[in-house]
Fold this protein.
Amino acid sequence: MEVIAPRSTAPRREFAKHVEEGCPYRDDDVMAPEKGVSTGTTIMAVEFDGGVVLGADTRTSTGQYVANRASRKITKMDERICVCRCGSAADTQALSGFVQFYLGQHAVELGRPPAVKTCANLFKIFAYNNKDRLMAGMIVAGWDEKSGGQVYNIPLGGSLIRVPFACDGSGSGYIAGLMDKTYRPGMSKAECIEFVVNSVAHAMARDGSSGGMIRTVVITKDGLEETHMEGNKLPFGP
Amino acid sequence: MAGTGAGYDLSVNTFSPDGRVYQVEYAQKAVENSGTSLAICCKDGVLFAVEKFMLSKMLVPGTIKRIFPIHRHAGMSIAGFLADSRQIVSRAREEANQYKSVYTDEIPPEVLAERLGNFTHLFTLYWSARPFGCTVLFGAVDPETKVPSLFQIDPAGLVYKFKGTAIGKGKQAAKTEIEKLMANPDITCEEALVHVAKIMHKVHDEKDKDFELEASWICPKSNYQFAAVPNDLLKTAEDKAKEMIEAEENED
């Protein structure tokens, strides 16, 4: 059962107010506000015939500190569209909120579920127009009537690229070769899930900012299935 | 200011005691003085035709267009003040472009028609504005499903969806003819062209100046893109239409 802790009555310390001009924080101060909460991450998505598989680790960190060890980096945008977020948690959450709003209005005007490409394009518009201010990488994936399962990658600069599979976040560099080696076009749904879980597990083993569990989301025309694999049950790890 | 309604027709934001907005009705009158403009929604596309009066013998044929492209798969024909209609045409193009740049798909015809209705309606709400003296027929073909659709947007801002309709001087007669023509639901744009030419020549009032027939379509013949009906096709259709009318007259 979930227990909700009583709210503390002690006054919260506001760091910025207690710092004198020119005084830097200690380098090891994990609560330093300017460090920001970021999802040092491994996220990925693969397309298969009839849908997509999305995967992500669950570690959210503030510098060295693990702020959340079971976070959700896969956010639902519509009934059959999800986005994997990486970069600043604040930026990507805000961005997802805006896109959910506009996509919702668009769906009402359209009278049917929006296209995956439309969702990805909205992300692109925000990401590109605010590129100097944002630290946000997104992988938009989903299923629509017109084009089936699709994966779109929106990396840091705000470009939009459709890909058969995509990977992003700090952990992505460690597994680029592994994915190239293990990816085969035309994989089944089960093979895609295995591909995602295996790749993310390898990234989590090497990348200090990725860890915790692996969450996967499968999207098909029938909707969304979310599952997770606990950190001690991964196919690869220390 | 004696009698009901007198003096209530100067502003668009004052109702008359019997609940009318005269300025909007006058705007609709302006449309009825214009040359006939018609459009039909065939099985395979949309066909537009406009009766364009030749105001002078020195006028270059083809000048003053009354049918406009909106985007690759949509067009618009006009009746009423041509200058007013340009506002609607450019707004329609803007909306279509903006929609596509944001949502990546082409704007659904229903959505664009409704937005143009809203735009037109705005000009019936403020004393500082004058309603548009024109009605437009907006037609489009869905590039994916190839389903054609046709809408009429009047100065009040009302949006109607039609299988076929006519506006302008000869609208009554033309509508009756269109109804007969559309009794065949399988008619294609190419087959309908000659009938449309016939309708336009039939409803043309002999008392008016000579006219030029302008026609455009969105159909397989134009690769489902908005395009003017090629001159040779239009010429043959017009000649054939004239023959048919003559033959009918000889029968009587």
